[in-house]
Every structure is written in structure tokens, then in C-alpha cells.
Amino acid sequence: QVQLVESGGGLVQPEGSLRLSCAASGTIFTVNAMTWYRRAPGKQRELVATLTSRGTTNYADSVKGRFTISRDNAKNTVYLQMNSLKPEDTALYYCNADIDNHKLYWGQGTQVTVSS
User: Who contacts 16 (Cβ-Cβ below 8 Å, separation ≥6)?
Assistant: First the structure.
């Protein structure tokens, strides 16, 4: 069984920064891709950033140039560095992992609130 645990959320002022972490644990042979999603109150889930095993990244237009996804393969951990945060970035952020034979796993999420 694979578990994903996110951390690093919190309250930050506009233009501030946060770094989120998502650690995968359990029996893992191959991490095909890890993705950060977010869901703001009253809105649909939004893909924020994806990082594949080949190093390919994909970002939502709304975060390009401000957010950076990276990984530590040894720790099976993916990070989301968020800079120049805006109030509209407020959401529950959670990660998804595509592991082994494309089984998908989800974390519980970490809350990010951007407010003065």
C-alpha cells in the first residue's frame, strides 16, 4: 500500500512564498509521475503542476513563472515551490502519484491561505 503525505501549507501574505512537500511511502518500484492539484472553495479541482519520471513538467497557466515542481527521487518526495503568492492561490493543495502499473494514489491535502 502506498501513502502520500503532504506538508508545508499555511497562512502567508500576498507576494509571499511557501514550499509544499509530498512524500510517498510504501512499496514503490516506479514513480511514473507526480502531480499537484488544488481545490478552492466553490471551484473545481485544478491541476497545478506535473512532473514525470522523465523530468517533463507541466504547469497551469495561472501559476507559470511563479511555481516550480521538483523532486527528490531518493526520498520519493515531490515539492512545489510557490512564489509571488496571490489570494486566488488560496486552496487545499494535494498531490497525486502515478505509481508502478499506473495505479493512482492521493494525499489528504494541505491548506494554503494567502491573505493579508
Answer: 85, 114
Cβ contacts of 75 within 8 Å, gap of 6 or more: 23
Q: Which of 111, 67, 116, 53 is nearest to 87 (CA)?
A: 116
Phi first, then psi: give them for residue 74, nearest 5 degrees.
Answer: -65, -30
Amino acid identity at 27: T
Contact present, 70 and 78 (Cβ < 8 Å):
yes
Q: What is the pLDDT of residues 52-94, one digit of tens each?
A: 999 999 999 999 999 999 999 889 899 999 999 999 999 999 9
Residue with cell 492521493: 106
